[in-house]
Amino acid sequence: MKLRHTYPISRVLLGASTLVVASLILLVGCAPKPPPVRISPAKAPTLTYPLPVAGDSSIQVPAVVRTGISYQLQVSRGTESSVVARSGVPLLLPTLIAPEVLGYFELDGHYNRFVVQDLATGRARGARYGYSPEEACAPELEAARKALGGSSSSTWSDAQASRGAEGTCRAGFAKAWARMRFDDARGMLGERRFAEAKAALLAFIDAYPNDEAIATAYFRAGAADFASRNYRSAAELFRKSAAVPTVSPSLAAEGLLAAADCALETGSVGQSFGDLAKLARDYPSTAQASIANQRMAYEKKPFAFKDEVQDIEKGRYAIEPFVTYPAMSRRLGEQGLVLLGIIIETDGSPREVVLSTSSGYPRLDEAALAAVRKAHFFPARSPSGKKFPVRMQVPIRFRLDS
Fold first, then answer.
1. How far is CA 237 from its chain centroid?
2. Cβ(76)–Cβ(48) under 8 Å?
3. Is the dihedral of CA 82, 87, 89, 93 positive or negative?
4. Element spanning 338, H or E
5. Pick from 291-305, 339-353, 381-395: least confident
6. Are 136 and 56 in a shared domain?
7. Angle, nearest 10°, between helix axes 214-227 and 249-265?
8. Structural domain count of the chain
9. Which domain holds residue 191?
10. What residues pair up with 112 in beta bridges, in sequence order?
11. What is the reported pLDDT for 251?
12. Please, where are the H alpha helices in 266-373?
């Protein structure tokens, strides 16, 4: 049903009076033209209500204020208020879903647009995350459509438009926010915001316990702990990633090998051997199984390895580089391959990150260097489990179609 907007009665009266005046002019012919009439839109009352937020917050969302056919969303902080959104269609269910994060719907006929706005930066997004809140808030959205469609039994008012999401609907907002934070977590890891990334990933796991990305979420949360040297917690998270029923063989194998590395860091050689044995048994065709078999062979016959240095493993990513494509490079059509030389230290941090082969574009080279400097690795080990620094080449490819 197409939305209809309610116009002030003064506009209706103005239209009627204009018709009357026009008729008189036609009849009299010489009557002077009436002066223009200006009507200021009536001020809508400000309806203030507090929103429940975890933690202490002084933010309030006063109302969706309607002026004529324009809608705006105001946010108040004490005695100060500011407009954070304007729209030509009704705004519905404004809800503070986290400190400094506001969610709401734009309602246009049968189309709903879910919006999440960062009040600190003004960034608005959310359209691709709207499935959960749309499904959860279906009764509220349908009631709004009927009311705005002009039903004679409607009790719609601006006060109702200003109410936040509650119950199941609010839970839908929270699930959408959790998925957004899951997508953001990779950038947090790349910026070394490990605690924030782990919290976002665990919130996603709680909100979507059966999602296909759960194994990835567990692994990345483990990587955050690993980079923070919280090895016991990291090992448990890596094992959980490998235990997800829908996990891919390569991720499961990497999770078990990472758990074995963490066990070595805490001196739990027996636990490390158990993780390696499970890896070799359950995922024998993976590259990680070859590493597991070599380590277990050393444990059984260490004398067979005359020079363990020649059998040092390569370093593996715990946290991959989070590369940001420079906006100017995209506009100018710059793309290419950057090769970087690095030394992976025994704590997994990269050292001496240098440019080996340029892409031909300084902006792309600098973006690659900055990203790899913040990456984190599982340190290279010999078959005995001893850690060694190792030199590696890291390729970073920039493609305009990616």
1. 21
2. yes
3. negative
4. strand 336-344
5. 291-305
6. yes
7. 20
8. 3
9. 179-311
10. 107
11. 96
12. 269-282, 287-300, 327-332, 362-373
Q: Are 128 and 179 in contact (CB under 8 A)?
A: no
Strands, E assignment, 52-132: 59-61, 64-67, 70-77, 80-87, 91-98, 101-108, 111-118, 124-125
Question: What is the Cα–Cα distance from 160 to 63, expressed in whole angstroms?
Answer: 9
For residue 328, the tally of other CB atoms under 10 A from its CB is 10
What are the backbone dihedrals phi and psi of residue 367, each rounded to the nearest 5 degrees, phi first?
-65, -40
* Domain identity same for 95 and 202: no
DSSP result, 263-292: HHHTT-HHHHHHHHHHHHHH-TTSHHHHHH
Looking at per-residue pLDDT, the higher value among 320 and 300 belongs to 320
∠ at Cα 357 (352, 363), nearest 5°?
Answer: 85
The predicted-structure confidence for 228-260, as pLDDT tens digits, reads as follows 999 999 999 999 999 999 999 999 999 999 999
Per-residue model confidence (pLDDT) at position 299: 72
| Residue 344 CA from chain centroid, whole number | 29
Which residues fall within 8 angstroms of residue 329, CB to CB, at 6 or more apart? 335, 361, 363, 364, 367, 398
Contact 334, 312 (CB under 8 A): no
Contact 170, 100 (CB under 8 A): no
Cα–Cα distance list, 60 to 38, 124, 141, 180 (Å): 34, 18, 23, 23
What stretches of 345-389 adopt beta strand conformation (E)?
Answer: 350-357, 376-378, 380-381, 387-388
Fill in the amino acid letter for 237: L
Give pLDDT tens digits for 16-59.
444 444 443 333 344 443 333 332 333 333 333 333 333 334 44
Helices and strands (H and E) in the chain: how many: 13, 16
- The structure tokens listed for 150 are 């002009």
Question: Given 289, 311, 333, which residue is the final one in a domain?
Answer: 311
